[in-house]
Amino acid sequence: MTTPDVPFGSCPLPHSNASSIMLGHGGGGTLTQSLIETVFLPAFANSALSARHDSAVLEVNGQRLAFTTDSYVVRPLFFPGGDIGKLAVTGTINDLAMAGARPLYLSAGFIIEEGFAKSDLAKIVASMQAAATEAGVQIVTGDTKVVDKGKGDGVFINTAGIGVIETPLTIAPGSARAGDAIILSGDIGRHGIAIMAVREGLEFESTIESDCASLHAPVAALLRAGVDVHCLRDLTRGGLASALNEIAQAAAVGVEITEREIPVDTQVRGACEILGLDPLYVANEGRFVAFVAAGDAERAVKILRGEPVSFDARMIGQTVTGTAQVVLRTAIGGNRVVDMLSGEQLPRIC
Amino acid sequence: MTTPDVPFGSCPLPHSNASSIMLGHGGGGTLTQSLIETVFLPAFANSALSARHDSAVLEVNGQRLAFTTDSYVVRPLFFPGGDIGKLAVTGTINDLAMAGARPLYLSAGFIIEEGFAKSDLAKIVASMQAAATEAGVQIVTGDTKVVDKGKGDGVFINTAGIGVIETPLTIAPGSARAGDAIILSGDIGRHGIAIMAVREGLEFESTIESDCASLHAPVAALLRAGVDVHCLRDLTRGGLASALNEIAQAAAVGVEITEREIPVDTQVRGACEILGLDPLYVANEGRFVAFVAAGDAERAVKILRGEPVSFDARMIGQTVTGTAQVVLRTAIGGNRVVDMLSGEQLPRIC
Predict the structure, then answer these.
(1) Which chain A residue has the Cα nearest residue B142?
(2) Which of B19, B129, B139 is nearest residue A117 as measured by Cβ atoms?
C-alpha cells in the first residue's frame, strides 16, 4: 500500500502563507521551498538560480565554474565530531563537489556577537583551516562584523566557494533519468543526532559523533574513473528524504528505495526513537547520494568503498518512470510514500 | 606641525588584548586590523589573503578572477538612500571593482530572525535585484537560515562576488608608488551620517541620503581609457582616513592630502559637528579613491566626472617617499597626521 506520510517528529504542516518568518523557513523542507519559490526566485530570476542546484554552474570565458554559498548558525558551536568552523568549510566544499567541481577557493564571513571569547574564535578558525587544508582548498577572502550583545548568538559564519568543473558531464538534479541506480555513501542521521544529543543532554554507551566531512575525494574518484554520474546531492537539512524528493521533482522521475539497504547506526536509531525522529529526515554533513547509469552501479559502489569517507557505500534503489515521488519499500514489505520534510524538524542544525 | 591625532568621536584607544570580542573589532579600524593579524591571517595564511585587498585575486586556468565577501548587519535595515539589500549588492560589486574586475556573479546568504516580516524581506530582495540589474550582475546562488527570536536582529545578509579581471594592470594597495596622484570620487560622509541621523532622530532642512551606489562604471571607464591605475579603494568602514592609512602601509609610501580639496556637504558637516564626528572617518558606500600615475591625473578626473556616481571627482593629494603615514594639510594651513580609526566610531554602519 502506498500512503502519504507525515515525517515523524515534524510539526503538523505549518501555515505557509504566514506573514512572518518562522524557524521552519530555514529547515530545508517545504517551508524553505515555499520561501524560495515565492520570494527569492521571482526576484532573482536567472537560469543558474532556477536550476536549484547545490551550486550555480557558471561559464567564465569558456571555463565552467561552480559557485555556492551557505551560512552556518549551528547550535551548539562545538559538538562531537566537529564545530561550526569545520562545518562551514566542509559544507561549502560539499556543495561544490555535488556539482562535480574540484573545490578551489573559499570566502569566510563572520558575524560575531559582542562578548564572544576570542579563544573560541581562534579554535573555530583553526578548525576551518584544518578542514580547508585537508581538502586542498584555500580561504582567500574574508569579512568580520560584530553585532551588539543579544543581537546575535556567539558567531554565525558564511562561506562561499568557487570550484572548477573539469568533467564534461552535466551533473545536476535535472540530469537524473529513469533507470538510474541510486547509491548512498554511508549510514545516515549522525550529524543531526549528535547535535540533538548535546542539546537534550542524552547519553549513550559511546558518544555519537557528527559525520561532518568533506566529500570531494569520493566525487573526484568517481569522475576520474569515468563513471557516468547523472546527479549528486549531499544529505543536509531535510535529510535523505528531502534530497530524494527534490531530485525526483527536478528530473520528473519516480524514486524507489529499500529501507533494509539504508544503514543507520544502532545508537542513532535508538536516539531517533527516543526523540521521535525519522532518520530519513535527519540532517547529515558527510553523506551523499549518487545517481549513476545502472551499468556503472557496481563499479561506482566499489570506487566509493575505496574512499574512507564513503567506505560503507551501497546501492539503495533506482529511479523509475511515473509519478515524481519517493517510495520506500519498508522492512516489513510494505510501500510508503516518503514526502519532503514539512516545517522544521531540527532547528539550527547547520 | 605634525602631531598624532585621535579621531573625534571615537572612544579612547581600547585595550586590544581583551579576551572577548568588542563592537570595535567590527569597526574597520585598528581593532579590526589587530583581529585580522592575530586570529585570521596566522590561521588562513596564503598569498591571496595576505595581500589584504578588497577582493582576492585568483588565477583559474589562466583567467584572473576577483573573489570577495561581505556580511551586512546595518541598523536600521531601511535608511534614506537605500536599505540592507541595496547595500549588500553594491558593497560587494564595489569590492570587485576595486580590484579592477568586471563584476559578474553574486551569492546571497540570509540569516533571518524568527518573526521577521515577509513583506520586509520581499522589499529587501527586490532592492537587491534592482541594484544587481543596474550593475549588470546576476545573483546566482543563495542560502536561507532562520534563527530563534532574540538571537538575530531582523536580517543579516552575506554576499560574495566573482568578477573577471580583464586589465593587465595589477591594481592593489601594494601597487601605489611615490608620485601617484590621489583622486577622490566625490563628497564624503553621507552614508554614515544618513544612518546616524535616523538612529539619533536628527532632522535637517532636507534629508541626508546615503551615497550607497555601485562603482563599477567609473572604474570601467578609467580602465577602458587606459589610465595607469595603481590602486583603487572604496571608503567604507573607517572612512577616507582608514583607507588611506591602509594603502600607505601596504605600499610603504607617505600620503599627503589637502583638506580644502575634500568635499563635504554642508548638512553632513553640520551633523558631524553635532555628533562629534570627523568626516574623514565616517563610512561611505559609494565613494572611492584612485591612485593613478601623476601624468594621467587630469585625464582621470575628467573621465570620472563624466560618470554620474563620480561627477564631483577631484585630485586631493599625492603620495611621497618617506614614512608610511597620512598627513593632512589643514584648511588653516597646518599639518596633521591622520591615523587609522581606532576602536569603533559608528557601530553596524554596514
Answers:
(1) A69
(2) B19
Residue B190: partners with Cβ closer than 8 Å, 6 or more residues away: B81, B208, B209, B210, B211, B265, B268, B284, B286
Residues of B in Cβ contact (< 8 Å) with A114: 20-23
Substitution target from A30, A147, A159 for chain B, most B beta carbons within 10 A: A147
Nearest to B139 among A44, A61, A144 (CB): A44
Which of residues B11 and A160 earns the better pLDDT score?
A160
What whole-number distance in Å separates Cα of residue B246 and Cα of residue A257? Answer: 58
**Which parts of chain B register pLDDT below 50?**
1-16
Give yes or no for A19 touching B (CB within 8 A). yes
Q: Is A139 in CB contact (< 8 Å) with chain B?
A: yes
Q: Please indicate whether residue A344 or residue A340 has the higher confidence score (pLDDT).
A: A340
**pLDDT single digits (tens) A269-291:** 999 999 999 999 999 999 999 99
Q: Are B306 and B314 in contact (CB under 8 A)?
A: no
Of B67, B111, B150, the CB nearest to A141: B67
3-state secondary structure of A176: coil
C-alpha count within 13 angstroms, C-beta hemisphere, residue B245: 19
Among candidates B54, B71, B84, which has minimal Cα distance to B195?
A: B84
Length of chain A (residues): 350
Q: What sections of chain B are H helices per DSSP?
A: 30-35, 41-44, 47-50, 84-97, 118-135, 190-200, 216-224, 239-251, 266-275, 297-305
Name the pLDDT band for A48 (thresholds 50, 70, 90). Answer: confident
Beta strand extents in B49-200 (DSSP E only):
56-60, 63-72, 78-79, 82-83, 101-113, 138-147, 155-165, 181-184
Q: Are B131 and B214 in contact (CB under 8 A)?
A: yes
Nearest to A304 by CA among A169, A186, A132, A212: A186
Chain B residue nearest residue A50, CA to CA: B140
